[in-house]
UniProtKB/TrEMBL annotation:
Main location: membrane
Domain LRRNT: 15-51
Family note: Belongs to the LRRC3 family.
Gene name tied to this protein: Lrrc3
InterPro entries: Leu-rich_rpt (IPR001611), Leu-rich_rpt_typical-subtyp (IPR003591), LRR_dom_sf (IPR032675), LRR_TM_domain-containing (IPR050541), LRRNT (IPR000372)
Location(s) in or outside the cell: Membrane
Protein name, per record: Leucine-rich repeat-containing protein 3
Protein keywords: Leucine-rich repeat, Membrane, Repeat, Signal, Transmembrane, Transmembrane helix
Mode of membrane association: Single-pass membrane protein
Transmembrane residue ranges: 188-209
GO cellular component annotations of the record: plasma membrane
Keyword Plastid on entry: no
Signal peptide: 1-22
Classification via SMART domains: LRR_TYP, LRRNT
Amino acid sequence: QAFFCLLLCVPWGSSCPPSCQCTERAGAKAVLCSSRHLEEIPKDIPKDAVFLKLDANSITRIPSNAFRHLSHLEELDLSRNAIEKIDRAAFKGVAAGLRTLDLSSNRIRSIPKEALLALNAKLRLANNPWHCECALQEVLWEARLDPDSVQDITCHTAPREEYVGKPLLQVLDAGVNFCSVRQRTTDVAMFITMFGWFAMVIVYVICYVRHNREDTCKHVEYLKSLPSTQGHAE
């Protein structure tokens, strides 16, 4: 943050979004768009931006390829917005160079794991109304989370009421595995489906046998009703 304050002192000579302030120090170019009442990500962010601050706005969604043209981007601050949806390819094009990504203090309940697991950046995900599930668990285990904020990733909703309000890390340390819960649910659904098909086959076979038995009985009764050969001979 102190570095961003220093950057404020040196204006750019290149183009800059009208709602932002662009500065430069020691060759590092920053685009500062904090607290500008933005509802979406500006389209005209300079391609050579290294630092981008979009915090304290009203952004609700990060669409696919939102930062794809910012190949030099290293730090991205999206904290304190109203973000609810993040597309799978939201950070496509910046995954390799991004060093920090701040998504804290938004309205994010769930996020496609593909959007974050491709990143090498240190992630801040605290203070969001997370729904604790398998995808979030995989992000916690595999992504590079900021250790200072990981305890603030709390279960706002969860499959079981006892997990609500607890840090996700604490729940997982207690032995809970949301991914195995999902697997068991899938297995149960498959079992019910297979049982349903099996029951339908059994019912069909029973009906088929019963129908054939009735036809056989009718045929036998018909044969009995016919005049016998012996009777004709007399």
